[in-house]
Design a protein that fits this description.
Layout lengths: L11 E2 L13 E5 L8 E8 L8 E2 L4 E19 L8 E10 L3 E4 L5 E5 L5 E8 L6 E2 L1
Antiparallel strand pairs: 1-2, 2-3, 3-9, 4-10, 5-6, 5-7, 5-8, 5-9
C-alpha cells in the first residue's frame, strides 16, 4: 500500500452555486477528490468576513481544524418550538476559535460555524461518510 499525501492546494473547487444556499455570505469551498475506498469526506472552506454556514446537523462526528483567522462555532443546547406566540426559543453556546484549534462537533448536534466580522477564516473539515445527507435548517 502506498502512502497517500493530500494537499489543500490540489483539492477540487466546488462551484458556489452548489452550496450558496447553506452560507450567509462569501465563501470558497474545495473538496478532496473522492476515492471509492475512502471512508471520509475532507473539505477546505474559506469564509470571508462575517460569512457563516447556516444551522445544520451531520449524522457523523465532524472535526474542524482552524487554518487561518478567527471564527465562531455555535452549538445549540436547547430549542423550544412549542411557544404559543409562534416564536422558537434557542439556547446556544458560542465559541471563538483561532488558527490551530481543533473542534469535534458531535453527530446529531445543531450547529453552525464561520468567520467573525472583520476577519476572514478558513478550516479543514473532516467527517465520516454516511448514507444520510446533512440536514440544513
Amino acid at each position: 500500500m502506498d502512502l497517500k499525501i493530500l494537499n489543500v492546494n490540489n483539492m477540487i473547487e466546488i462551484p458556489k452555486i452548489e452550496h450558496e444556499k447553506h452560507f450567509t455570505g462569501d465563501f470558497k469551498m474545495r473538496k478532496m477528490a473522492e476515492e471509492i475506498t475512502s471512508e471520509e469526506e475532507i473539505y477546505f472552506v474559506e469564509f470571508r468576513s462575517g460569512c457563516t454556514t447556516k444551522p445544520h446537523i451531520h449524522m457523523s462526528e465532524q472535526i474542524l481544524i482552524a487554518t487561518e483567522g478567527k471564527r465562531i462555532v455555535v452549538f445549540v443546547e436547547e430549542m423550544d418550538v412549542g411557544d404559543q406566540s409562534g416564536n422558537t426559543k434557542i439556547l446556544h453556546k458560542e465559541y471563538e476559535i483561532k488558527k490551530g484549534d481543533i473542534v469535534r462537533v458531535p453527530a446529531g448536534l445543531i450547529h453552525w460555524h464561520g468567520a467573525i466580522k472583520g476577519e476572514d477564516f478558513s478550516h479543514i473539515a473532516i467527517r465520516k461518510k454516511t448514507n444520510i445527507e446533512n440536514i440544513w435548517l
